[in-house]
From TrEMBL:
InterPro entries reported for this sequence: SDHAF3/Sdh7
Primary location: mitochondrion
Family membership noted in the UniProt record: Belongs to the complex I LYR family. SDHAF3 subfamily.
UniProt organism field: Daphnia magna
Identification of the protein by name: Succinate dehydrogenase assembly factor 3
Biological role: Plays an essential role in the assembly of succinate dehydrogenase (SDH), an enzyme complex (also referred to as respiratory complex II) that is a component of both the tricarboxylic acid (TCA) cycle and the mitochondrial electron transport chain, and which couples the oxidation of succinate to fumarate with the reduction of ubiquinone (coenzyme Q) to ubiquinol. Promotes maturation of the iron-sulfur protein subunit of the SDH catalytic dimer, protecting it from the deleterious effects of oxidants. May act together with SDHAF1.
Signal peptide: none
Subcellular location: Mitochondrion matrix
UniProt keywords, alphabetically: Chaperone, Mitochondrion, Transit peptide
Record carries keyword Chaperone: yes
Length: 128
């Protein structure tokens, strides 16, 4: 029986597999970060559904790199550390390749991710 390889998948199947893999990896994130990450991934994949042919390879490569990096950071050995590091810093060269709207999105994402946690009513202990 032959095994499936990436060459036997259609482009749509490869995109769907990557999308589902990223969402599965996000299950290992803290809930607040998972919610932001899931929404961002969903928006980005939806936004690029009908992207230009020359944008496909950089899009897929970027998301594969993200999935590999995050899965390594969420590995058991990394999570045993007191404060595991998630993500990585972007180089100046990487930032220079971004379009203005991408820089704006990145800035909004950073603001959302670094927002102080607001206690909800359910987090406040009550006396019985």
């Amino acid at each position: 029986m032959a095994t499936a390889t990436s060459t036997s998948f259609t482009h749509v199947q490869r995109v769907r597999l990557l999308y589902k893999t990223i969402l599965r990896i996000h299950r290992g994130l803290p809930l607040e970060i998972k919610a932001i990450g899931d929404q961002y991934v969903k928006d980005e994949f939806k936004r690029h559904r009908k992207c230009q042919p020359h944008e496909i390879n950089p899009f897929m490569t970027g998301w594969v790199d993200y999935a590999v990096t995050l899965s390594k950071q969420l590995s058991v050995s990394q999570l045993k550390k007191k404060s595991p590091i998630l993500g990585r810093h972007l180089t100046q060269e990487e930032l220079e390749t971004f379009k203005d709207d991408q820089v704006y999105q990145l800035h909004e994402l950073m603001q959302e991710a670094t927002k102080p946690k607001v206690e909800s009513d359910s987090d406040i202990p009550t006396k019985l």
